[in-house]
Model the fold of this input.
Amino acid sequence: MKLRLGMIGGGQGAFIGAVHRHAAALDGLYDLVAGAFSSNPETSRASGQLLGLEPERVYGSFEELIHGETQRPETERVQVLSIVTPNHLHFAPAKLALENGFHVILDKPMTFSLAEAKELQAVAEASNCRFCLTHTYTGYPMVKEARQLVASGELGSIRKAYVEYPQGWLSTFEEGGSNKQAAWRTDPARSGVAGAMGDIGTHAFNLLEYVTGLQVSQLCADINTVVPGRQLDDDGAVLLRLSGGASGVLVATQVAAGEENNVRLRVYGEKGGLEWQQVDANTLLVKWLDRPTEIRRTGTGYVSSYARHNTRTPAGHPEGYLEAFANLYRNFALSLQADLSGTTAPPEALDYPGIAAGVRGMAFIENVIASGRSEQKWTEFTV
Done:
């Protein structure tokens, strides 16, 4: 049973919209049947035509889409709405969708502000609808393996964690030209209070908390704007104190010239540690205090059920970013299909970022910017 999918945003010229559509299509669990692909009705119509949608189901605004779909018979209307707009346009369509009974998949960060995030959390919890936030890197099989390894206790109590996300694409004043992605991601009116920390720092923060199972309790941030004329941060480093007594370091920068998207995580416990990075996403290094390092690989028989569940190809066949993204869509679909059929989804299918992760991500943004501006060395992490 395919789920009927609608999309808000992601029209012609939008990078992330195409990624979402590829992810949704990969496992054949969704049919894209409707959309409001742009705030410009003409662009929305043109995008819908290119995607082969029925003209009457291509709408000029998210309000028109939600109202129009609620008027359709239950057997025809959209069931899931994927929202892939810039940050400042996340809250209103997500709230309206949930209030009208649509399940929501939302691009990160969840909202424009922490206040909006908390309000959306209340709406989601009252709606009985499912909600997924697309923190892509949690979808990689070996990130799942890393989380299960930590949770098993094999590494002992976690003592230290390092996470970094270096990019170089904003090493120059890209927003001064025709780069639409740079323009909105560096604009406080559309991106919010943070630049790099909101765009990629939230991914690093989520990855660290997801794998370790720990939560940040205090932080000390150094936030920089390196490129002249830029309105938001493009570089930063954060010292972290975590629950359970562990400590960590988070680095997020978009001015590391020559770097692409090499997200990297290292976690160390009493007995051993682990290391994962996106440039070699099929590999998880497990380092032991008293024996040789292990190399765990995607698609092998010895990995956890969570890693196996999120793997599509035999060992040695690389799976990457689109597959990790698709795992979020697949798990969301499997959990929702179980709801609709009155069955119970397996725990592996329920493993995707939800509303609580979204609230903590917005709290990270506001806390880290406040810490960067503060004269105080350590500040409390508040939600």
Remarks:
- The mean pLDDT is 97.
- The chain has twelve helices and 14 strands.
- The longest helix spans residues 321-341.
